[in-house]
Amino acid sequence: MTWKRIYALFVARNIEFMRDRSALAWNVLLPVLIIFVFAYAFTDDNPEKFKVGLIAQGSLQGAAAQFSDTRYIKFIEFDEAEANLFKVERHQVDLLFDADGNRYWINRTSPNGYIVEKLLIAAYAESDATLHKILVEGDEVRYIDWVIPGVIGMNIMFGALFGIGYVIVRYRKFGVLKRLSATPVTAMEFLSAQILSRLWLLLVVNLVIFIGMDLFVDFRMHGSYFNLLLVFVLGSVNLICCGLVVAARISSEEVANGVLNLFSWPMMFLSGVWFSLEGAHPLMQKFALLLPLTHITEAAREIMIDGVGIIGIADHLLVLGVSSLVLLWIGARIFRWE
Fold first, then answer.
1. Distance separating alpha carbons of residues 143 and 168, to the nearest angstrom
2. Is the residue at 15 inside a domain?
3. N or C terminus of the chain with fewer C-beta within 10 Å?
4. How far is CA 172 from the centre of its chain?
5. Do 193 and 308 have their domain in common?
6. Can you tell me the distance from the alpha carbon of 14 to that of 160, in angstroms, rounded to the nearest whole number?
7. What is residue 35's predicted lDDT score, i.e. its pLDDT?
């Protein structure tokens, strides 16, 4: 091993990268875009760390007003308590506070709820009013129960996007697609084969993950396994088609990496995988509905946590199915062999 040869290869690779202007642009612009999106979505002069649902008919007075002035808490106004209790159960809000009735609801399994409760009690320490604590009714949902559907969906996302995108780009780069173009195989046939090949692998891998996590964590599964499989199959096909569209014309692995990251990073943080978007900017909530991982995660949670049937998740299935067909058609239309 000679450092001279290593250094020569190092310099040559850097020169190659600098000459690829599209790859250079993506590597420069992508971090800027990510920073901009997250700065716009989640930060301002008072970044909130906790979410409290607030029910109040008029202006807040006394201890309630003092509590509402607590920094780093996002107060989300609700009209009534009963219709929003499920948000406490699902960790969408950390605590639900009825300022008029001096009542609050909390999920005992929520770490953030525990901290917010202490802040609420401290605000009422010198008040004559008495707080009434109410634990959410029914079977409380642990955070691990809530997050697992999103984690499985995120794993499918990375396997679909990068697994299919890099393969096609590499085929094009090394001339494999050029040789295939001389055969009778059509673009649709080639892309369909790629979908099926990646789909079975994703399903097998995530089935192993699902069984393994169930053995160690024993998470909730109140719905139909068939419905859950249908969600993951449609979700996998949709994300694979996204990867196909990205790789339909790109021949540079650096550009492919940038574009695939541009797809995956917003989905990872804006699809409700790790935290709820309750209280986020309304435009961000609407944008999240355009992301396939949002529909995969929400449908899987409705099945696993609430036991919702096929009718209840029909809207998510429709979005995933129709968008998959559209993406496949676009990928076949813009696909090039060379």
1. 38
2. yes
3. N
4. 30
5. yes
6. 29
7. 47
- Residue-wise DSSP of 217-277: H-----S-HHHHHHHHHHHHHHHHHHHHHHHTT---HHHHHHHHHHHHHHHHHHSSSSS--
- Residue whose tokens read 């339909």: 248
Task: Give CA–CA dist 333/195, Å, rounded.
Answer: 16
Q: In the chain, where does DSSP find H-type helix? A: 3-19, 21-42, 62-68, 85-89, 111-123, 143-173, 176-180, 187-217, 225-247, 253-270, 282-288, 292-306, 314-334
Q: 161 and 74 in one domain? A: no
**How many Cβ atoms from other residues are within 10 Å of residue 24's Cβ?**
15
226 lies in the same domain as 285: yes
Does 22 share its domain with 101? no
Pair 188, 247 in one domain: yes
> For residue 43, how many other CB atoms are within 10 A of its CB?
10
- CA distances to 72, 110, 223, 244, 302 from 238, rounded to whole Å, are 38, 33, 22, 10, 19
Q: Are residues 244 and 167 in the same domain?
A: yes
- 92 and 8 in a common domain: no
Is there a single domain that holds both residue 26 and residue 104? no
The residue among 117, 135, 153 that closes a domain is 135
Six-digit token string for 47: 């970044």
Q: Dihedral, CA atoms, 29, 30, 33, 38, nearest 10 degrees?
A: -150
C-alpha distances in angstroms, 58 versus 54, 71, 100, 222, 240?
A: 11, 21, 8, 40, 51
Task: At 98, give phi and psi (nearest 5°).
Answer: -100, 100
Where does a domain end: 82, 104, 135? 135
Nearest residue to 312 via CA among 321, 296, 295, 299: 299
Q: Which residues pair with 98 in a beta bridge?
A: 55, 103
208-223 per-position pLDDT tens digit: 777 777 777 677 788 8
Domain, as residue range, for 61: 50-135
Q: What is the pLDDT of residues 109-168, one digit of tens each?
A: 788 888 999 899 888 888 888 888 988 765 566 777 777 888 888 888 888 888 777 777
Q: How far apart are CA 162 and CA 247, in angstroms?
A: 10
